[in-house]
Amino acid sequence: MTEQPEQKKRTRQPNGASSIYLGKDGKWHGRVTVGVRDDGKPDRRHVERRTRAEVTRAVRELEKQRDAGKLRKAGKRWTLGAWLEHWVTEIAKPYVSENTYDGYEVDVRVHLVPGLGAHLLDGLKPEHLERFYLKMQRNGSAAATAHHVHRTIRVALGQAVRRGHLTVNVAEIAKAPRLEEEDIEPFTIEEVQRVLLEASRLRNSARWVVALALGLRQGEALGLHWEDVDLAAGYLRTRKNRLRPKYAHGCGDTCGRKPGYCPQRKQVRREFKSTKSRAGRRTIGLPEPVVKLLRKHREEQEREREAAGGGWRGTGYVFASPTGGPLSPNTDYHVWKQLLRDAGVRDGRLHDARHTAATVLLILGVPDVVADAIMGWEPGGAARMRARYMHITGPVLKQVAGQVGDALWGEQPTT
């Protein structure tokens, strides 16, 4: 039986259907409609192979990828650098908080674009990222910095996938930089008492009470307004977060200083933002000693208002400057560090006060659901946060050991 030659005639297919034909160049070609281009015309992808069987397989694979939504969009191929710069300014900036954007922007400008930006977006591999993270750390970056960069590019590439510029987010495949678990030791009750005694000599002394007794985050404490505090009913609500100030030159960048030290500097960031998460917007009951301290604090602030006269800003902050303006988070941090030194207490992060407050709730045996509400932990991640913030202290271990001893070796009932 003689073999019939392959059909060369190109038959017209219905609109939108894939086509396979033998070209004048002697190769087999296939065209697959996968969508619509930006100009509204059909997006037809082309493949060519030596035989009809090969091109048929290629066409079927294109159709499969199209139907699964895994085809890259048509158009000019992005470089990673161009995509990251577009993503951070046009996509991320309008929708994330100022602090989140700042972190993204630094990661993109300082690390990702110089280190990886020349790669084609769809040519980036997990191994490129893993080698880059190691290089960052060899050049002196902390593991936490490399880990933050990893999270940033994972978000950026996730947007590229959702918009059809990529089919796979390689940052989800790449191994993230390893972070060593931080060993945090909360302050003891005695240390807390020494800190509060020293704080009582400072203005805004109640600021440190709400940190150590209630576990408020720095932004929550500095963003607290008097309208959020009901001393008669004995509770406060966390609804606002103080933002870290950001400045721009008011002199046209002629003073030779950084924007924050410009004599005519201008504030370019709002003072606070509303708390978005449901868990973050919470109501916290105030122990009676805290109510008394806040009443005293309000009286002291009223005297400062009278002394300031027309210079009083009247912004409504619970913890304010002598003229009623908001406190700087940076200054607040340095006051905390000095407070620990003056109290003769070991050094610790400001956030360690929150760990201490959570541990006190554990020592007191406060039910988990109540502790979660006080600390502002989201229900889905509350168990993980309790494990991170509530530390098993010596007194707790001693109490449990005593209970075990009583149960196993205590007085046995007589029969």
TrEMBL record:
PANTHER family registered for this protein in UniProt: INTA PROTEIN, PHAGE INTEGRASE-RELATED
Keyword flag Disulfide bond: no
Ranges for region Disordered: 1-26
Gene3D superfamilies documented for this protein: 1.10.150.130, Intergrase catalytic core (1.10.443.10)
Name of the protein: Site-specific integrase
InterPro entries attached to this UniProt entry: CB (IPR044068), DNA_brk_join_enz (IPR011010), Integrase-like_cat_sf (IPR013762), Integrase_catalytic (IPR002104), Integrase_recombinase_N (IPR010998), Integrase_SAM-like_N (IPR004107), Tyrosine_recombinase_XerCD (IPR050090)
Keyword DNA-binding: yes
